Amino acid sequence: MIKCLAGSLKAALSLALLAGAGSVLAIDNVATLVGGDTASGDQATVALDSTVPGAFSYQRPPSGVATATAYLNSHVFCAETPRAPTQVSLHPRYQQSVTLGSDVWQFPDVYVHSFTYQGGGVGNAGAPALVIGQATSQVNKQFRCLSSFPGSSLELPNVSMGLFDSGFGGNTTPTAPSGPHQNVTVNAELFSGFSGLSVSVVKIDTQFDFSNPAGVVWTLVDGFNTSALSPLADATWCGLGTLWIEHTTPPPQLCDDALLSGTIKESGAFVRHQFSAPASSLPYYVLVYRPVVGVASAGTPIQGFAALRTGGGMVGVAEESQDWYTDDSVWYNY
After folding, report:
1. What does the pLDDT look like over 290-320, one tens digit per residue?
2. pLDDT of residue 274
3. The dihedral of CA 54, 292, 234, 108: what is its sign?
């Protein structure tokens, strides 16, 4: 069935078609747009990984939410708010090249409304493309994604907003916009001495517009290398606020420690920590830890953190100026 679809440039694979199909489908080597809602902003423009057999699979249980798993050709970090179940949950994955070790990465799942598989370009006359979108016109829905390539431990990753990005893949810092603009910078510090755990304090620093700063709601998410960190155990995190002193070692019991009694401990398959950064506020810190199960392939990271805007921001300002320098919006631990 899929071979027939792939052979037709005008074929459309819609959610209704998926619902009536078998329990598992696979599509390989097609361009992929994750997002599809221009009102929300960031969209990851990537492709299914042609080196992974069955790079796209769809599983529909007898009841409940269906699962779509996509092995993509770059890292993809997504965040959504509100996080309300729809018909399908998308699970982005990434598998490294065998020359690096074939480690598999997992990234936060998001609920999506539609899949369209059709010819790309004008009149759908181009090569087939898979467009993964959110529910149309859902009130107050925010759904944003960033795609990223880690690079080395000594340089920033290459990060893209997809359709809202004009400088993806550059090796130099772009020039700041002349008009109103803001930016977010993410970095993390790893701490040793916590048996069996990879422990980080993540710093999210908003650079506000000088003349008209606007408060922003950020969602911090993580992705991780399953060769190094456990895919079977949850991540744990707690917000440390803006008064945390940078480079301070977390207390022995981490989020459960009495010294952090005012924080709220959370856990889940992926870090999803939403917080407000009021105009001109100080950097915000989050304590995150995951169980260690092994080591990553040489020279490759074990975990990535990304901040995505899921509320607030400058009214009437173009999306690419809300976080104008995206390469510092993602951080990797090695």
Report:
1. 999 999 999 999 999 999 998 999 999 988 8
2. 98
3. negative
Give the separation between CA 50 and CA 36, rounded to whole angstroms: 22
Please name which of 292, 284, 150 lies closest in space to residue 229, comparing C-alpha atoms. 292
pLDDT of residue 214: 98
For residue 83, give the amino acid letter. Answer: R
- Across the chain, mean pLDDT equals 83
Tens of pLDDT along 109-128?
Answer: 988 776 666 655 566 555 55
Q: Are 308 and 218 in contact (CB under 8 A)?
A: yes
Neighbours of 100 (CB within 10 A): 13
DSSP type of residue 252 = T
Measure the CA–CA gap between 110 and 88, rounded to whole angstroms: 9
At residue 130's C-alpha, the angle toward residues 305 and 270, to 5°, is 25
Indicate if the pLDDT at residue 30 is higher than 50: yes
- Name which of 327, 168, 301 is nearest 226 in CA terms: 301
Please name the residues in contact with 133: beta carbons below 8 A apart, sequence gap of 6 or more: 35, 36, 37, 112, 113, 114, 115, 116
Cα separation of 74 and 157, whole Å? 11
Mean pLDDT of 50-61: 85
Spatial contact of 59 and 97, defined as CB atoms under 8 Å apart: no
For position 19, what pLDDT does the model report?
44
CB 292 within 8 Å of CB 305: no
How far is the C-alpha of 291 from the C-alpha of 196, rounded, in Å? 6
CA-based end-to-end distance of the chain: 42
Is the per-residue pLDDT at 16 higher than 50?
Answer: no
Helix/strand/coil for 174: coil
